[in-house]
């Protein structure tokens, strides 16, 4: 099962000609999840030829303009096709007011259900049969949350030789064992899945953290991420400014990646003061703490494979 993250915009505060505002699309086979929706989101969706029509849910970190100004366009765009499935929108208080006011002022034609759920405490906000998405608190100048998508453990690998040695021939009974069902062998013996399946294998974890001051608690929330997309807005010489505006430096983002033992961390939401060439300063400072730190760029694609 594929898990891919598409960076639709990596900028903060204001869009630049080469840098749209913060937004990441996560594709998990047929499921599409959008994290934040800054200005320019539609442009990157089009340029990447992504099937925006099937976005299942949108997760908003907070209601500052650089994270939500692309949302009305996405809602109207989705109404241009036949859609019966609901679109879920999650975010802290004010998200519902923003969406409903935008619909009213812009006279939006919406032909599908929109279900808005506001987050007031850490909780699981969205889930499927083998994954869930959880929100947790951050600390910004207004209520802000981070998100993690975590897959449940997968069954262990099926051992066909073991099954045959226990009198279970190739065929439908193998499928039952792999689905967790007991079967009866040719000699009348009850064979359980644990007899022919290896140890459970871990799923994957994706984390999205932006617009927050540094908090040690964030590392606990994103522990063991296979991919951590994390704000790294300022360099060290702007640490005071970062503290005042409740943002993080690249070094602080790297500290979270290191302490959380994340397998991969890519920074996002850069201050517009840095040109693309100057972003190397952020990267260098982050790599002094977490050597595997990376920079995101608009329309960059991250594959998130299984560890095994």
TrEMBL record:
Binds 2 Zn(2+) ions. Its EC number is 3.1.26.11. Zn(2+) 2 binds at residues 66-67, 211, 269. The keyword Magnesium does not apply. Gene3D superfamilies: Ribonuclease Z/Hydroxyacylglutathione hydrolase-like. Pfam families: Anti-Pycsar_Apyc1 (PF23023), Lactamase_B_2 (PF12706). Its cofactor is Zn(2+). Keywords: Endonuclease, Hydrolase, Metal-binding, Nuclease, tRNA processing, Zinc. Zinc phosphodiesterase, which displays some tRNA 3'-processing endonuclease activity. Probably involved in tRNA maturation, by removing a 3'-trailer from precursor tRNA. Homodimer. Zn(2+) 1 binds at residues 62, 64, 140, 211. This is Ribonuclease Z. Residues 20-195 form the Metallo-beta-lactamase domain. The gene is rnz. One of its GO terms (molecular function) is 3'-tRNA processing endoribonuclease activity. The active site is at 66 (proton acceptor). Belongs to the RNase Z family. It catalyses: Endonucleolytic cleavage of RNA, removing extra 3' nucleotides from tRNA precursor, generating 3' termini of tRNAs. A 3'-hydroxy group is left at the tRNA terminus and a 5'-phosphoryl group is left at the trailer molecule.
